[in-house]
Amino acid sequence: MGTKQKNNGNINHDEEETALSYIIKSLEDSSMACEGAHFYSHMPHTFTVFGASGDLAKKKIYPTLWWLYRDNLLPKSTKFCGYARSKMTVAELREKCHQYMNVKPSEQQLYEEFWSHHVYVAGNYDQHADFLTLKEQLAKMECGSNCNRIFYLALPPSIFEQVTVNIKQLCLSESGWNRVIIEKPFGRDDVSSKKLCDHLASLFHEEQIYRIDHYLGKEMVQNLMTIRFANRFLNSTWNRENIASVLITFKEPFGTQGRGGYFDEFGIIRDVMQNHLLQILSLVAMEKPNSCHPDDIRDEKVKVLKSIPALTLDDMVLGQYVGNPNGEGDERVGYLDDPTVKENSNTPTYALGVLRINNERWEDVPFMLRCGKALNERKAEVRVQYRDVPGDIFQGKNKRNELVIRVQPGEAVYFKMMSKRPGISFDIEETELDLTYEHRYKDSYLPDAYERLILDVFCGSQMHFVRSDELREAWRIFTPVLHEIEKQGVQPIPYVYGSRGPKEADKMTKENNFKYYGSYKWHGKK
Ligand code: BG6
Fold first, then answer.
1. Is 68 exposed, middle or buried (0-12, 13-18, 19+ CB in 10 A)?
2. Model-level pTM?
């Protein structure tokens, strides 16, 4: 968790008011909370995790709930209910999650207390009778008092529909609010996503639906709005007159790692580009919202997405990794060697897509989304490259400015600029103005994306969640090309595990007004 430090400083578990009250208050003050957010405080809450025995629950959801509990960020008397098909006790569930919880010896008592608030119900997802058991269990935990309920669907999309129907029919709180958290994939294309949206809309109000894109919970993604709209010098250059191109990158140095079955069905475009990278793009490119209210922000995100024409195959490079015979361990294993992947699968594990934004601010500025697995490094960043300085007086030695927002690892914002080489020489060289969090904010706590997002659900803030119209626009942009890839059976270009990806991608970035000099290394880089 990067620069994670001990805690939010002075939060004390015995305090009468929880730290959550403070957060809610600041949300209300800045008008960032949605309707009903103020219902949080003195009512009990139950948090139900569907798919409690699964990977996401054990690696992300339960650890996140523990960290929030440990830091006194949850409302008092929150109770937790796990639900899944496997027969299990709470002790067994705890055992499964334990290695991901990071419990310090000094926290042991609190940790015991945390688990004492849990129950587990084994049941099928399509059985009315099992949901009746869940309903009774929830009522028992709440001791008949008024209660707010959160339902987290850590489930494959194939069972979303039946589970949500059962929640609606049997499990909603009648006295408090109800909120449902769902995880991507939100469909496979425009039609399936619309079907899911319509289904959810027939059961719940949009204010009750929290579609998680965990990139929206990352520190630097949340910082994009501040960087853009609280800095006059940046704001005035944020346009086609000054910016040559924007490159948004996601790289992972490992392959499918046993997730081949899931991944092969979706591929990198649906797994990362259509959601995480497009969300970042919309925050980089949108106009200034009227306020920080979640709906004002999401209105602007939708507006900019509407200016983007659908991608075509000509705008893309697709790749698939092959094993590196000279590598070690996993590096030798290509995508097609994964036994959970279909034989001869042509699912891309790498993609570059060049998007155009047809509006006054961005016409002719290519926005490139680039993502891949089994590459040479782990990195997610936004690179805003400025145009060449007109009227050069430095004999062509000048290089373009770049504003780099490094999402991970090692959160940072740095501005690549030219400066006179120090000393007697009058030469010029590349350097940077550097805001590296690890140096500048030594003692700050950067919560995990899931911590922020789950807390937002308690607070009733939908600012960092995906609204249905955003999703509709995202699928409008990507569905035609996804269908075309499938229809034509496009073969991705092979690239070696641990490399930079297909060379054709570098060529395409160059053709789209992105200059790579290869002469500069950022020193903050981990
Ligand atoms: C998930 C994708 O949404 O994001 C994974 O399904 C990917 O394939 C992951 O590995 C990356 O998340 P993070 O937070 O580790 O960058």
1. buried
2. 0.92
